[in-house]
Amino acid sequence: MSDKKNKNVDVKELNAEQLLKEADKKAEDSSMWRTFIRRFKRSKTAIIGFILLIIMFSTAIFGPIIYAGFEFSIGDMEISWGGTHGHHYRSQNLDNNLAPQSWEHPLGTDHLGRDVLARVLWGGRVSLAVGFVAMGIAGTIGIILGASAGYFGGAVDMIIMRFTEIIMSFPLLFLLLTILALFDGGGIMLIMVVIGLTGWTGICRLVRAEFLSLRERDFTQAAQALGASDIRIIFKHILPNAMAPLIVSITLGVGGAILTETTLSFLGIGITPPDPSWGNVLNDGQSYLRDHHHLTTYPGLFIFLTILGYNFLGDGLRDSLDPRLKQ
């Protein structure tokens, strides 16, 4: 008799586990990933943005190596490849300052005789890295706080949202300038962290709104009834279904983070010279704008194309992931 009872208990536990797995599968199916690739390929805006970003990232990663070359040593062995000394972003030649565009210097030189193309290419590495990492930090914080507020509600929701509103009440640029001034400017890592720690509020509010809606759906209620843990429900059931607007927001946010870093560097409180970023390259050229426009035109063009790429990609992702466009 006891064996029969144990068998019934095992069957019930097995059925519960199977039902929970089915709930997991339904949650994944409802996240609309099956149709995403098809819609993305049909979106000309998304494709243009994606191609622009591929070009900009490829230029930033491989451009300095191809243009300026590299050299390093391993023990007694020295390895070098390509480029010239004058094409390094720190190389100065005061006898050739403010030179126009030429074969040797395709974008000319600045007031210290530094090659503008080399500085724009290397500055692209810095600006793109800052935008990407900063939004990674902001996205992580925003998702954790927004998911906690939306799922648990009550006092947790109230505390998190009041804290979010306090952060949002400060002017972002003033807050960034104040923090960086306390550290007497900053290196790349500090800029990444500061932008990330101040840029999560919008993502937090978005995730909270999605969780407030999705926690009332049938698949969430079923998972709770079957005894799934809160962590499993949040990350396995609800978060995948909230990813569509979240991806769009983060994609657009990367462009915003790049603009923020560019603004800070342009104001002289971002990336510390002589290390270049698009912002301080613009700052170096502003005094010579009338007679030597190449000092600001080309870094400005790189910024424009990068932000345009992120905006196009974000717009295309929104159209591809919007359930109202499902056919």
UniProtKB/TrEMBL annotation:
Signal peptide interval: none
Domain named ABC transmembrane type-1: residues: 124-314
UniProt keyword annotations, A-Z: Cell membrane, Membrane, Transmembrane, Transmembrane helix, Transport
Keyword rRNA-binding: no
PROSITE patterns in the cross-refs: ABC_TM1
Subcellular location: Cell membrane
Main subcellular localisation: membrane
Short name of one Pfam family: OppC_N
Classification via CDD domains: TM_PBP2
GO biological process, alphabetically ordered: transmembrane transport
Matching Gene3D superfamilies: MetI-like
GO cellular component: plasma membrane
InterPro entries (UniProt xref): BP-dependent_transpt_permease, MetI-like, MetI-like_sf, OppC_N
Listed SUPFAM superfamilies: MetI-like (SSF161098)
PANTHER family linked: D,D-DIPEPTIDE TRANSPORT SYSTEM PERMEASE PROTEIN DDPC-RELATED, OLIGOPEPTIDE TRANSPORT SYSTEM PERMEASE PROTEIN APPC
Family, as annotated: Belongs to the binding-protein-dependent transport system permease family.
Protein known as: ABC transporter permease
Organism: Proteinivorax tanatarense
